[in-house]
Specification:
mainly alpha, 10 helices, 58% helix
């Protein structure tokens, strides 16, 4: 079996390191923003041991937007690959919208006209930053679309018509019947018996009796614990000659040279010698360290 080329080993190590950095950074950012999403955006009472966000107990939704904006700016300042930046903030926003969705359909204090409208306006701040303009991350997000449909259902004046499949296709096409039934049931808990606001029992019964209603296999809540790994397939790959324009630390080039294993064929030895000579020249032109590589 042919031994992997030094360049392949170098690439694999860089990819492995990139995935590790990406995962740890994503988990750290999610840990920081989770309290403010639940306590400020969704008004959940904080637990006694709730961590502070950005050193503030009175952090607001505006602080969340500023924190994400500053993090995004850091990615740009450090020339993080655009595909990595896009994947990173795509997952952060998916996490935020997943929490919003789960809380609304399960909490009666959020499942009402006033709170739904308030949340809709708050999320506009995020959408203005990340869904439009030069910093656009995505035109839409699956979880964001679910939240928009939930809000649309809550704001409907005539919810009884949701027993019609055609109406559901127009208003909330991505909600499962299990999710929609839970949402309407939660809404009823907040109606205080007001018949003008309460969703009729007949509407809920029609949803349950629909052949598509599958309580056992349908998803109710969105899993917020899963962190998707970095998709390396979407990243830009470059050839060795392109290293000429990249100012990597000296240690990176030294690691590449250290990975160069003895090659058997005369041709491979010539290639290896040429690569070492190339990197010696490159280091002398780009690195302040003058030590020669032997």
């Amino acid at each position: 079996m042919k031994e992997p080329h030094a360049a392949d080993k170098f690439r694999d190590e860089i990819q492995h390191l990139l995935v590790r950095i990406y995962t740890v950074l994503l988990e750290n950012v999610i840990t920081k923003i989770k309290p403010i999403v639940l306590e400020k955006l969704l008004k959940r009472a904080p637990p006694p041991t709730s961590p502070q966000l950005i050193g503030k107990r009175d952090a607001s939704l505006k602080d969340l937007v500023i924190y994400l904006r500053d993090t995004h700016n850091l990615f740009q300042q450090h020339m993080v690959c655009p595909q990595v930046t896009q994947q990173f903030f795509y997952q952060v926003l998916q996490f935020i919208y997943a929490n919003v969705f789960n809380e609304i359909i399960m909490r009666s204090d959020l499942c009402n006209f006033n709170k739904a409208l308030e949340i809709k306006m708050d999320l506009t701040l995020l959408e203005e930053r990340f869904f439009a303009g030069p910093h656009k991350i995505a035109s839409t997000l699956p979880n964001a679309e679910l939240v928009r449909q939930v809000v649309s259902v809550i704001l409907m004046s005539e919810k009884a018509i949701l027993n019609s499949a055609e109406t559901r296709k127009t208003v909330c096409p991505d909600l499962t019947l299990v999710q929609l039934k839970q949402l309407l049931s939660t809404f009823n808990l907040n109606s205080d018996g007001n018949e003008e606001e309460t969703v009729p029992v007949a509407t809920l019964t029609a949803l349950v009796r629909d052949p598509a209603y599958d309580l056992e296999h349908s998803q109710l809540l969105i899993d917020t614990a899963v962190v998707q790994p970095l998709n390396l397939a979407e990243l830009y790959t470059f050839d060795l000659p392109e290293f000429k324009t990249m100012l990597f630390p000296r240690s990176v080039f030294e690691r590449f040279l250290a990975l160069a294993s003895p090659l058997k064929s005369k041709h491979d030895k010539q290639v290896e010698k040429a690569q070492k000579a190339y990197f010696k020249t490159l280091l002398s032109n780009t690195s302040p360290v003058k030590d020669k590589i032997k």
